[in-house]
Design the sequence.
């Protein structure tokens, strides 16, 4: 099984440094272009199925990466971005790129200490639901020889890949995955191996 774990393209809120989370923001024109270029780079990959976050930015990214391939595209809420609750829509960085939100400073620098916002989730929540997804798909006999595209989000990608890293103390694994980056995972005989990490094709 080969799993291409994809982060969505750039959105307007990414550029504005706003907390996005579960808010359904579409791709910006630059995000569409980035997704198209990523799709061109992956045009020879024979995907069998795509699982995507239900949010528009992830679904659009999958659409542009897949191009004219006629394969099942299945939304799954378990790989949706972390829900930031009342923090969503707030600006967390200034024009110089400095984090100005105390909550988001913890989220990026001490993620396991990030407290669940009102009406939102914490890291343990997203680890649990992405793990449920991971175990279900990687143990499905029907998928064992398939090539799979998973279109998701920055925090959800890192949570999903904890099933490979198994290093929650270093949740971000060095950084937030770049927009339209790919983490390629091979699952064989129940063991997961990371073949490519945070690769930006475009």
Sequence:
């Amino acid at each position: 099984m080969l799993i291409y774990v994809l982060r969505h393209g750039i959105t307007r809120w990414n550029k504005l440094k706003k907390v996005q989370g579960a808010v359904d923001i579409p791709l910006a024109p630059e995000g569409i272009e980035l997704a198209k270029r990523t799709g061109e780079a992956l045009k020879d990959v024979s995907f069998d199925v795509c699982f995507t976050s239900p949010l528009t930015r992830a679904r659009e990214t999958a659409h542009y990466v897949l191009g004219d391939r006629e394969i099942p595209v299945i939304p799954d809420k378990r790989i949706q971005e972390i829900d930031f609750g009342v923090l969503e829509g707030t600006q967390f960085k200034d024009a110089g790129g400095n984090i100005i939100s105390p909550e988001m400073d913890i989220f990026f620098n001490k993620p396991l200490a990030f407290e669940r916002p009102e009406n939102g989730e914490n890291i343990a929540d997203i680890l649990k639901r992405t793990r449920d997804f991971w175990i279900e798909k990687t143990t499905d006999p029907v998928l064992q020889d398939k090539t799979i595209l998973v279109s998701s989000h920055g925090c959800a990608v890192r949570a999903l890949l904890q099933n490979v890293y198994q290093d929650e103390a270093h949740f971000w694994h060095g950084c937030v995955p770049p927009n339209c980056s790919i983490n390629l995972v091979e699952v064989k005989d129940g063991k997961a191996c990371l073949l490519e990490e945070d690769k930006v094709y475009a």
Summary: Strands lie at 2-7, 49-52, 73-75, 147-152, 181-188, 191-200. Residues 78 and 129 are 5 Å apart (CA to CA).
